[in-house]
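QA checklist item 7 of 12: single-chain prediction sanity check.
[x] sequence parsed
[x] length recorded as 110
[x] structure emitted
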Amino acid sequence: LRKLMAQSFVVLDQFNHSAFGTLTLEALGLGVPVITRIDEESMKSFFGQSPPVLNASTPEQIVNNIRELKMNQEFKEEISASSMEWMRNHHSVERFQELQIPVLMKLLEG
């Protein structure tokens, strides 16, 4: 699946809920633009920065986002680069260790 995703022009995730799943995270890590529906404020409060996805909740928004990616190569490249950077800064193993080790140490200390 990663091979196919890495070759994809864009990944469309879910549009019913304002959150993303593993598919979005995999695509972001590969630098593949993602169109999905998110609650940007919730993402900012949870991660410190909203992920660089193209937010859409209607068929028209989805089509417009695909069209923008298709017609503007520079925009697509910016999204790709910022996706990989966002993953390194907000969702990498190193970032989770940074967040979780202090919590685990407090639990161990009692």
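[x] summary fact logged: The CA atoms of residues 51 and 86 lie 6 Å apart.
[ ] second reviewer sign-off
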